What does this fold into?
Amino acid sequence: MKFRHCGAKLLDDTEFVELVPVRLERAWKFLAGEERDFVKVQGHNEVLRYAAFSYFIPVESYADNKFGGVAVLVERDDAHQVAGHMFGLMPTELQESDLQDACAEVCNIFADTLILYLSGTDDINMGLPVMATEQQYQYIVTHFIDSTIYASQRDSRTLFVGVYYGTRPQR
It folds into this structure.
């Protein structure tokens, strides 16, 4: 059984997986001002789709030679929700750059929430969030060994958060 350090407590994988949706829900409430439930998605390969605001933040764990990252797929309505709440603006006042900035921050905060998937240590290098093109996103989805996906559905909006990881190839 693998244990992960989470704050001052060690959690086994089952406890950790159960804790992740709670942390994502708290982060979204803080960022967007609305409550959403997140669930781990089973059989996610056929469900995932590129979204208007698809961001990826690369992460590397030196301790166990893993690399990967966190992806956040945000639909336009959710981007308006989070940007409006973050910046205190009405949807009609938001610029495209506001939506991009807000979604990049969502990716950053969610990556911080999920980072323990890559390593139980603090020997981690986390990059900056980048907006992924559809081709870049497809590469991410198909070229990592493993992934864990969480989703939140509200009305007709679906927000996806994915953790992608693998072992660094030998040079």
The radius of gyration is 16 Å. The chain has one domain: 3-167. The longest helix spans residues 13-32.
